[in-house]
Amino acid sequence: MPKILIIEDEKNLRILYQQDFERDGFEVVTAATAAEGLAMVQDEAPDLVVMDIRLPGMDGLEAMSRLLDKNPKIPVVLNSAYSSYKDSFMSWSADAYVVKSADTGELRARVRELIASRADS
Amino acid sequence: MVDRRRTLLGDTLAIVMAGGQGERLYPLTRDRGKPAVPFGGIYRVIDFTLSNCLNSGLRKIYVLTQYKSGSLERHVRIGWGPLFNHELDEWIQCVPPQLRVGERWYLGTADAVYQNVYLLERERPRYVVVLSGDHIYKMDYARLIARHEANDAIVTVAAVEVPIAEASAVGVIAVDEESRITAFQEKPKDPIPLPGRPGTVLANMGVYVFDTETLVRALAVDARRESRHDFGYNILPALVDTKKVFAYSFIDENKKETAYWRDVGTLDSYYDASMDLVAVEPVFNLYDKNWPIRTMAQQLPPAKTVFAQEEPGGRLGIVLDSLVSGGAIVSGGRVERCVLGPEVRVNSYAKVVDSVLMDNVDIGRHARVTKAIIDKGVRIPASFVVGEDPEEDKRRFTVTPGGVVVIPRGTQLD
């Protein structure tokens, strides 16, 4: 079962994402900060990471750089309430950028695509 | 036209790669990176690229440093910093690795820029000019950028024509009739010659203009691949299929018969390039007022020769076919075909021939030095002989395949 790591500081979103992705057949682990998330990348070896950008302490863009430096093959989906970070050069290393919405449909679709394309390669 | 040119340059950021170790220049690079190696008496290798920037009107410059960058940082800050006016949005700044991306050194030239993408984010220039701080040449980058824009290119690669026999030592660029690049070959065994000119290939000079967004996207993709993270090997070949990658034929501001572009990458090529400067008609002209080469100016008294005792056995201070930097004193010794750095001293009855003496080298009385490179501050004792007995030299010093004796900084011979 593919494993997804969610890095998200809002507790309610973590719970929502966990439920939705588990329903889609994924194993889900979560982290509330970038530092915690980076540690879990090493310990849990997830197949994909969904991460927020505005996080307490280290932000998601810096965390993504660090994550990709050690694990360049792990797909990363940036998930922010703001679309403005799409213009940031630092966000261009992500495999996908999904603006947060009450409907998790788009996020889940992108995750499924990336996991599927990863399985193919 | 002038306004257009100004806008283009104002919207262009230059990144000078100055992180190379210069292993083949060892021991000159024992305490400094290759861009900081002194050249031509008063200059350092990076001064030629920085002079090109200044003479081209590029005034936003980041110098990416890495190994042993102390003397380079000081040279750029003191020698070049005052020429750029912060209030006019101009700057030159050395950037050592920031370890923002990961805790490691740069993996390649592309990784060096990738790790500093935040600098591009901050400035958001339209174009980025990527340069190497390792080469000696004169080039107007403004013409390169104008050509880039006229071609509606996403990348333009400056290229110099070299004989096909030299292709295996360079990055070769294959082009069509419209200078569109069709392939990159790194040090190829079967190089692709220029259309209609089987004896000539185009060599990649390591001078690139990128549309900034193209550059960032290409770096982001490359960073996640197994790759050498190198512009010539990885970034440029990956963009060829867009058909918007163009070559720009080097127009040499040196204005001699053959184009001058030297990678002083080995001790012998460094020595040869130095000796060219003392020729009556040097290939590389340091004296062109239309293309001044700048460096960190030092307040030094004029060079001087003393003792004019021309009778046999007399003390005669004499300098022939040489470059002599400020503060040098040739006191009763003889100097032929040499590059003398600042404050060099050559004492009575000494003879120095075909050599490069860097700052503050002191040649003792009756010493003889032939075909040598002597690094800063070395004292050659009285009656010491260098460059006459290869076996003896090899026991004590580095001797190059071309027979040049290299005496590094800090060598104690007394």
Characterize the structure shown:
- The complex is a heterodimer of chains A (121) and B (414).
- Chain A is an alpha/beta fold and 121 residues long.
- Helix content of chain A is 42%, strand content 19%.
- Chain A is built from four helices and five strands, in the order βαβαβαββα.
- In chain A, α3 links the parallel β3 (48-51) and β4 (76-80).
- In chain A, α2 (34-44) runs parallel beside α3.
- The radius of gyration of chain A is 13 Å and the shape is globular.
- The relative contact order of chain A is 0.18.
- The mean pLDDT of chain A is 95.
- Chain B has 414 residues and is of the alpha/beta class.
- Chain B has helices at 2-10, 46-56, 70-80, 109-114, 117-123, 141-150, 212-223, 231-239, 267-277, 390-396, and strands at residues 12-18, 38-39, 43-44, 60-65, 91-95, 127-132, 135-137, 155-163, 171-175, 181-186, 200-211, 245-249, 261-263, 304-306, 318-320, 323-324, 329-331, 334-336, 339-340, 345-346, 351-353, 356-357, 362-363, 368-370, 372-374, 379-380, 385-386, 398-399, 405-407.
- In chain B, β28 and β29 (405-407) form a beta hairpin.
- The longest helix of chain B has 12 residues, at 212-223.
- Chain B is elongated and about 75 Å long.
- Chain B starts with a helix and ends in a 7-residue tail after the last strand.
- The chains are: A alpha/beta (121), B alpha/beta (414).
- Chains A and B meet through α3 of A and α5 and α7 of B.
Main sheet specs of chain B = 9 strands, mixed
N-to-C SSE series of chain A? EHEHEHEEH
Number of helices of chain A: 4
Task: Tell me about the largest β-sheet of chain A.
Answer: 5 strands, parallel
As residue ranges, the low-confidence spans of chain B are none
Our measurement of the CA-to-CA distance between the termini of chain B, rounded to an integer number of angstroms, reads 63 Å
Structural class label of chain B? alpha/beta
Low-confidence stretches of chain A: none
Q: Tell me the strand order in the biggest sheet of chain A.
A: 2-1-3-4-5
> What fraction, in percent, of the residue positions of chain B are helical?
10-25%
Shape of chain B: elongated
Oligomer: heterodimer
Helix content of chain A: 40-55%
Name the chain pair whose interface involves the most residues.
A-B, 13 and 14 residues
Annotation field: number of helices of chain B: 10
Query: How many beta-strand segments of chain A?
Result: 5
Decide which structural class fits the backbone of chain A.
alpha/beta
Percent strand of chain A equals: 15-25%
Rg of chain B, Å, rounded: 23 Å
